[in-house]
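Researcher: Let's try something more involved. This one mixes different molecule types, so please make sure each is placed in the same coordinate frame as the others.
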Amino acid sequence: MIKAAVIGGSGYTGGELARILSRHPGISLEAMTSRQNAGRPIAEAMPFLRGFTGLEFVERLPENGDFDVVFLATPHTASMRLVPQLMERGIKVIDLSADYRLKDPAVYEEWYGHQHSDAVNLSKAVYGLPELFRDDIAGADLVANPGCYPTCTILSLAPLLEKGLVEGKIIVDAKSGTSGAGQEPTRSTHHPNCAVSITPYKVGTHRHTPEIKGVVDGLTGKDIDVIFTPHLLPIVRGMLTTSYATLVDGVTMEEVAMAYRSVYDEERFVHFTSVPAIPATVGSNFCEVGFEVVGSTVVAMAALDNLVKGAAGQAVQNANILFKFDEATGLDFPGLGV
Amino acid sequence: MIKAAVIGGSGYTGGELARILSRHPGISLEAMTSRQNAGRPIAEAMPFLRGFTGLEFVERLPENGDFDVVFLATPHTASMRLVPQLMERGIKVIDLSADYRLKDPAVYEEWYGHQHSDAVNLSKAVYGLPELFRDDIAGADLVANPGCYPTCTILSLAPLLEKGLVEGKIIVDAKSGTSGAGQEPTRSTHHPNCAVSITPYKVGTHRHTPEIKGVVDGLTGKDIDVIFTPHLLPIVRGMLTTSYATLVDGVTMEEVAMAYRSVYDEERFVHFTSVPAIPATVGSNFCEVGFEVVGSTVVAMAALDNLVKGAAGQAVQNANILFKFDEATGLDFPGLGV
Amino acid sequence: MIKAAVIGGSGYTGGELARILSRHPGISLEAMTSRQNAGRPIAEAMPFLRGFTGLEFVERLPENGDFDVVFLATPHTASMRLVPQLMERGIKVIDLSADYRLKDPAVYEEWYGHQHSDAVNLSKAVYGLPELFRDDIAGADLVANPGCYPTCTILSLAPLLEKGLVEGKIIVDAKSGTSGAGQEPTRSTHHPNCAVSITPYKVGTHRHTPEIKGVVDGLTGKDIDVIFTPHLLPIVRGMLTTSYATLVDGVTMEEVAMAYRSVYDEERFVHFTSVPAIPATVGSNFCEVGFEVVGSTVVAMAALDNLVKGAAGQAVQNANILFKFDEATGLDFPGLGV
Amino acid sequence: MIKAAVIGGSGYTGGELARILSRHPGISLEAMTSRQNAGRPIAEAMPFLRGFTGLEFVERLPENGDFDVVFLATPHTASMRLVPQLMERGIKVIDLSADYRLKDPAVYEEWYGHQHSDAVNLSKAVYGLPELFRDDIAGADLVANPGCYPTCTILSLAPLLEKGLVEGKIIVDAKSGTSGAGQEPTRSTHHPNCAVSITPYKVGTHRHTPEIKGVVDGLTGKDIDVIFTPHLLPIVRGMLTTSYATLVDGVTMEEVAMAYRSVYDEERFVHFTSVPAIPATVGSNFCEVGFEVVGSTVVAMAALDNLVKGAAGQAVQNANILFKFDEATGLDFPGLGV
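Model: All components are placed in one shared frame. Result:
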């Protein structure tokens, strides 16, 4: 049994990790930290876990704790303080923060306003999008678990980029449920403010922009403009991205469809369909992708549950790869559908 | 032109007062205070008022301001500090807080945890439910504007109580949109917490309980048990109350219907219908009431917009009575319907 | 491996049965019928099942099909035509319609407007609420799977009724998500009509009334008035019931709490808590129950997922009992929480 | 008093026209037709109009009815059968269908699948977007009232197009509330299908595409590619469009801002702001527009109430222009804000 811990577990991602791991046959959640909830039974703070865990939140991991893997559900900058210590102890780390997602420390500093303090491990970190980087993940000690928007966007675009079917700038119009904003009440997630609206926010300045661009540039070998506009959606779980790119002259709709099929037909967690639908993915690790061709423009769409494939589920998928489990272990359940 | 001011105007009720008064032909909003927004144009903090008011929020009302009426959109305890000063200046006051709603200072202290500091004016205050107390309001200097839940509940029950058709305890199962909770973000109004749920809260302990009981007792001349269970509903505007009472032996459905008709047929803002519907009332000062008889139980229902008939609209209705305008002046617009 | 079939599987309940059974280690879904979808892959009509079933919908079950259990997700009257044939073939039946829930055929006829055509099996049918009738279910050939409202209501009231703590009439104010209305578009589930509202419907006339009353009377040995008011709630999954009963003179809050604890502490799928919350139950077979005492009135509350514990999940729980599996087999997963 | 009639008034647009006209000081609604509701009081079918109209729906307009203006809330093809008769009688027509919006009958036939039967009046019709075509509307006999998506999109783009600040293709990612789909229940507006989702539909094939392109081409004098992707949003009223265009080399953010200001500063119903918000516009005729510059891309956003500025409100605004009222007559009320 692989022994796991979660640091910073009191938020939605922590709850989701605990929910998934509670049913995982090969990974056991041994400890979960939370400053604000220390000493409190997890199942009391997260009543949906009643009957599934007897653990209490702890203030910090025991120094001599014997963990095989630690999931960091910490904010950025906290992760890069913790990673060196954990790796020194020989513990594999799956970091759900942004600290190890951007390869270039200068880009990190530009977008996050902090110098990166752990360039050594940054260079070793593997971007944890299994459908694209499965082999690298298998041998990694540190996995940078992708952001929800980048996961959704990149899965919808990867076949186009990998096969060289598009060129020029990419426009990403993204819509996310409110759980993506975390569990702390804010003005923007105050129900009267968001429940009968859809609100664009951080247009052109959202920190997932360089993360998307990094992968896009990597897949194409080019320097691609990525315009990223997130919107807050009046649903709780789920995300849709609608992306726009220009087809290389002469590319047909059939070639596009073939690209999606060849890339995803063997994938367990990506379903190629006509119109992606959030409800089919809710509560599950699945991502639905689809496209339409409109003149010379391809509209690439994807839907997923931001807390599962967009966060905790993908983290467990990465853990499965690290520890040679079948990739779907503990994740092999369908979405709610309705 | 009647000159009005609002104290404590930065919340939803203040915005709604400004929205309604901006279209009122006989009352002019001359000042609106807000500590947090002082100096800021109202239409900047409340963009829906752009083009309808050029006022800026002020920190406090000018000492020598020449106001005919002041609306208090202040929290409880703040109102009872302000009322004596305003009344001394000969200004009529419509208080939207709870400070002057409970006739007995001991009951106030029991439910609000504060001694009442203005017993003199408390005894003069008139409960501002026009459909029941229109004549008293006409002669008042201080109007205690009812709470949203009491307005909705009492309008649904009044015909039964006035006509002596029911006896015994009254159960009120109430459901309110989130705007009733005010504009400050909280855990309970955090979208992920409330948007796919309905949550009972303060069961038996909500402060609108003695307010409802006060009117019920007054109408019946008895000491009636009122069980009041509010629920937070995943909508923004609107409220429904479903109340249960026992019919006096022998009372028929026809008598009940006749009671509703005789009490409300001449009322401008109360519609007697079969099943009250929130959408018909949204954005308007209307209240829909209806009932069903099930065996010896009568189920009395009412729907209204908690920010209008449940707060600011009713306050303007009261102002119309105070200043001898037609009661519907400035309020004569239909609900959105959809 | 127990072989199961679903008749009438194209609705939400059928999808939910397929979703749950796809992960059940001891029951295998071998066939699912649907007139409208016959010949179509289930996973095409229900995309959330992609990867979890390769079955196609069939028009009808094969005459010589070797099934151990059939779940009927058929409308009322259809079930009572099918049950005799299936039972004759020695197949156990779990009927999710109302046809076998009301013990008295006269009551059935009164509320459903049809004569009951299968009095023989009606008398043998066991009401499938495991927490109350587990032992009877174990020996049954025909289980009448309870309605969603009755499950939620009865679980919240059972400790009070069983222990004789309440007397007199019972008022049930119930609120259900729209998935309870089924998958056929109607005026009442048209999004603009229901999404910013809560609508009482069939007040006093809903067909779950006699079902609740039947169990209440059975538990108390008395003839109890049940006033049942359902409301349509603007959420998809989930249900809350708020019920009101009068405490027997002298009963204390501690006794009430003790009753809930003694009845539910050993139950896998019922959680006694302070305020039941729908999100903790969504996607799961759990029911949360709680209560408040207000004067001589007890307010009993319960929340559950109407498609799981209120329908398909409870049906599988019943199947587990019938076939001697651990009762939680295939149902041992937490709710989404958020 | 101008005498108005509505043909095809039983839908949301008809209700909204009646709602607005009920408060209009210069236009009187004299008749409203509805096949399905003929003979029924309007205020019974549309309870929010109770107290505001005593009219009954009629099957058809009286042959000799003395109307100054008729609003057509009829489906496409129905309008072009009615317009010639009405115009022959000297009645001004404001058509809310698509029949007279596309100048080229061939384009109409391509997108609507019907030959245009009234080319004569088509050539005379004026596109009723007052902010762009006010002068033409003033002299028109037939106004083609714009679609909701085109109104929102074009208002957000017009300053960029008119001032020649952008070039190349335009991408419109649009999101609409469900009231835009009309009042007939459908699978896509069934609450369980749409309430926890956002669904792209008719990607590249929506009939508002050529309408947007027509105006864009007209404003620029070029043949511009318009990629239009509508999404169904889980709100009832309100719409947001997020559009993407490429800035002409060297255009600065200041120039863009100046363009918006110069075009809209004098407009009563268009507010230039930073981030457009649906709630500020709900229930009102206002449109909020804003933009961000991201590299060489400008992101143009707009929000409005699809039933008001996107339909009935704009129709009344057009009527005001036709009959020389102040353009805001009867429309001079703020949005709900919350």
